[in-house]
Amino acid sequence: MNGENNSQKSLSLPSLTALRCFEVAARTEHFGRAADELHLTHGAISRAVRLLEEDLGVRLFERRQRRVFLTEAGERLYRAVREGLGGIRQTAQALRQQSRPQSLVLSCEPTLLMRWLIPRWPAFQALHPELDVHLMAGGGALSFDSGIDLAIRRNDFHWPEDLHSQLLFEERTGPVCQPGKVAQFFERREEGWALRPSAPRLHTKTRPSAWQAWQQHAGLPADAKAPGQRFEHFYFSLQGAVAGLGVAIGPYRQVCDDIEAGLLAAPLGFVPDGSGYHLLAPAKPEPGSPHETLANWLHHLS
Questions:
Q1: Could you tell me the fold of the domain covering 101-167+277-301?
Q2: pLDDT, tens digit, 9 for 90 and up, residues 190-237
């Protein structure tokens, strides 16, 4: 009787919840990051992995300090789980599109959504009144299992290799300020405008290295002693520049409308910072689908 029970157990699938926790932990190499992505606690991820290891009778991870690394057995399971979940995700996405072919949820990083996408959204609605697209603010890691169909993200974090990714545009940044403050914050030199050392720099907690990154890509030395002010969110630093509080680092597509409207000036122009914004989806869009329609419009827009 025990032998029959053991045989049945050997043929049963492991817990799908545990496999999902394992897949994210293996991909991120960190139980804490896996917990954040799945909206669970660190302890829940740890228990799921431990139960999976007990079920399979093998160790799946080696734990070193705060990170975890796959064992040989873990690598084998990860390849199988990734392939299996990828197939399920693609099939589910296709079925969702079939059941509600005219509806999409697009997640976009908040400042880009506010300052670039929403001002252009009436043009999309005029072209495609038959499509119902819900815009959602969101940044960083995401899960397409939570009802999101598409996402616009900057590639400043790692996302799963099995996601479909389409580059929309490269990020270009530059110092921006209120036009009436240009002479106060910048000075004319033979080679053109230069930022005054006394000009207050506006910083943000959400992009703490924006100034250093711009100086590096512009080939300029760091000016750690320059006066500055720090804001909670990136949008606030740009609004501070509009108000004349100082100079902020402005990504081109998030400030181009304000520059055209005369609310901001960019005396030094913009330089690529090595990153870019991508349109992410669980699978490549089907020809003629709402996904493809929206993707093509975004690509043309950028």
A1: D-Maltodextrin-Binding Protein; domain 2 (3.40.190)
A2: 888 899 999 999 999 988 889 999 999 988 887 767 888 999 988 999
